[in-house]
Amino acid sequence: MVHHILLQCKFFLVEWLNITNTVIPNPFRKYYLRIFGIRVGRASSIHRGCRFFHVGKLSIGDNSTVNYGCYLDNRRGIYIGNNVGIAHNTKIYTLGHDYNDPGFFTKGSPVYVEDNAFIFSNAIIMPGVTIGKGAVVLAGSVVTKSVEPWTVVGGNPARKI
After folding, report:
1. Dihedral (Cα; 160, 157, 54, 120), 10-degree rounding
2. Most confident of the ranges 5-14, 41-50, 120-129
3. For residue 13, is it left (φ>0), alpha (ψ between -120 and 50) or beta?
4. Parallel, antiparallel, or unpaired: how do β-strands 152-154 and 95-97 relate?
5. What is the rounded distance in angstroms from the CA atom of residue 142 to the CA atom of residue 26?
6. Cα–Cα distance between 140 and 156 in angstroms, integer?
7. Is 49 exposed, middle or buried (0-12, 13-18, 19+ CB in 10 A)?
8. pTM of the full predicted structure?
9. Out of 27-31, 100-104, 140-144, which region has the weakest mean confidence (pLDDT)?
10. What is the phi/psi pair of residue 107, to 5°?
11. CB neighbour class for 109 (10 Å; exposed up to 12, middle 13-18, buried from 19)
């Protein structure tokens, strides 16, 4: 019973974060997000309209931007480096279901986006992926495997170009 109540409180807190994140002005947003355990570095920003799946477990380095409409499933952790650009409507997942398991249990891992990487709009990053330093993910790509540093990938599934 207590676990159920705490779980409902967590869901309420996350929904409150998602609703209020759209009205907090950008200069104050990173301070507001810190209340929820989200670390936003110096000169970095998370634009309005971004949605979170969890409180905490999200760290963004310096001079990085997460643009409008991104979906950040930070249940297992998302770690974004310095000088990173994440374009609008990108989705980053850290947890999913194991379709090979008869019980369809969850499995997941953190996602790492290293320094100087850029992810173009509408890309989907799957659990356990590392986007290497200076790598570029083209628009609409579905990244299911880690991307080597200084590599350009695109497509579904994303492949080196």
Report:
1. 50
2. 120-129
3. alpha
4. unpaired
5. 29
6. 8
7. middle
8. 0.89
9. 27-31
10. -150, 150
11. middle
Token pair belonging to 116: 């100087």
Contact between residue 134 and residue 152 where contact means Cβ atoms under 8 Å apart: no
Find where tokens 């905490």 sit.
Answer: 56
DSSP type of residue 40 = E
* Number of neighbours of residue 161 by Cβ within 10 angstroms: 11
Task: For the chain, list the domains and their CATH numbers.
Answer: 2-160 (2.160.10.10)
Residues 6+ apart with CB under 8 A from 53: 14, 71, 72, 73, 74, 75
The tokens for 19 are 């609703």
Alpha-carbon radius of gyration of the chain: 16
Q: Which two tokens stand for residue 88?
A: 């609008």
Answer yes or no: 54 catalytic: no
Tell me the mean pLDDT in the region 43-56. Answer: 88
Task: Find tokens 């499933």 and name the residue.
Answer: 73
Q: In what order do the strands lie in the sheet with 45-46?
A: 45-46, 65-66, 85-86, 118-119, 136-137, 152-154, 159-160
Measuring CA to CA, which residue among 126, 130, 132, 128 is closest to residue 141? 126
